[in-house]
Amino acid sequence: MTETPHTVMAVDVYNDKIKHLLGPEDGQDGNQAWAGRIHFHRLNIKHDSRLEGLIKMSDLTINLAAICTPADYNTRPLDTIYSNFIDALPVVKYCSENGKRLIHFSTCEVYGKTIGSFLPKDHPLRQDPEFYVLKEDVSPCIFGPIEKQRWSYACAKQLIERLVYAEGAENGLEFTIVRPFNWIGPRMDFIPGIDGPSEGVPRVLACFSNNLLRGEPLKLVDGGQSQRTFVYIKDAIEAVLLMIENPSRANGHIFNVGNPNNEVTVKQLAELMIKVYSKVSDEPVLDVPMIDVSSKEFYGEGYDDSDKRIPDMTIINRQLGWNPKTSLSDLLESTLTYQHKTYAEAVKRATSKSVASS
């Protein structure tokens, strides 16, 4: 908003995360560079007649709405499927019928498991990038069996992708599909009991941050052996801005947005976060900083996982000239500094209240 003249109509069921961005009518001082250019509309996209009118008023719709917390995929599969497929249908429909451009957020989970994961562990082809690097226009989408309801999210996201693509092919919808690969950074996700539900289970970085803030061991699901790549939110936003500003180069494309250079196992991520948090908080590392828990205990029945998620960057680099810049160590230091500054005192107060009531 500081770098462009755009006006934004933000639609959501709450505005807690963006209150500091809103204009004078929302009680802010109005001195920001974007004052008066962000308008918040409190509505639920799945049952509000105002949605089509807002889409008609806009040049571009960016659809971010989703249930996207892994703890919900196999415990709330109906909500997950409805949120990520059924509730997105009106957005796609109104954009197509009114000739409006759409940037739709999908997920890297649509790829599912890698081909390499089905080879024997000592097979030399497991090391061949062709068997694990994920390409938008080549890689198949491989999900687990139906009883593994964790894949309800990926399946719903794949289906809405296919619908968006079909609207483009048959009805001329101008679209871009974004597949995020673990975007992390300040202001993302929630800390349970502080700015989110006490019983909620956020994604991995916020889960680990919550443990660190509370002085608890980090919980490694099934030993934390799954491998992930992480990209800094500011780098990712630069990619989205390029999509917004270059429709002729972005329309009709699916883009991986991730950082293949920032790959670690979840256990390695935990080790890095423990080290960085101790540095930024000036607090000692626990004697037992990590503990192993089973996926069934942590996520419930029906959980499954992909082995690796490494994005191929060929298409986004060719079309938009984008490459991520921020190393994993730099983005963790920036993020955990923010987490400590923002949440540490609130967590201490909440913890002391809980002890007192007990």
UniProtKB/TrEMBL annotation:
What PANTHER family does the record tag this protein with? BIFUNCTIONAL POLYMYXIN RESISTANCE PROTEIN ARNA (PTHR43245), UDP-D-APIOSE_UDP-D-XYLOSE SYNTHASE 2 (PTHR43245:SF13)
Q: What is the lineage of its organism?
A: Eukaryota, Viridiplantae, Streptophyta, Embryophyta, Tracheophyta
Q: Which residues form the NAD-dependent epimerase/dehydratase domain?
A: 29-258
**Signal peptide range in chain numbering:** none
The membrane spanning regions, by residue number, are none
Protein name in UniProt? NAD-dependent epimerase/dehydratase domain-containing protein
Q: Which Pfam families match?
A: Epimerase
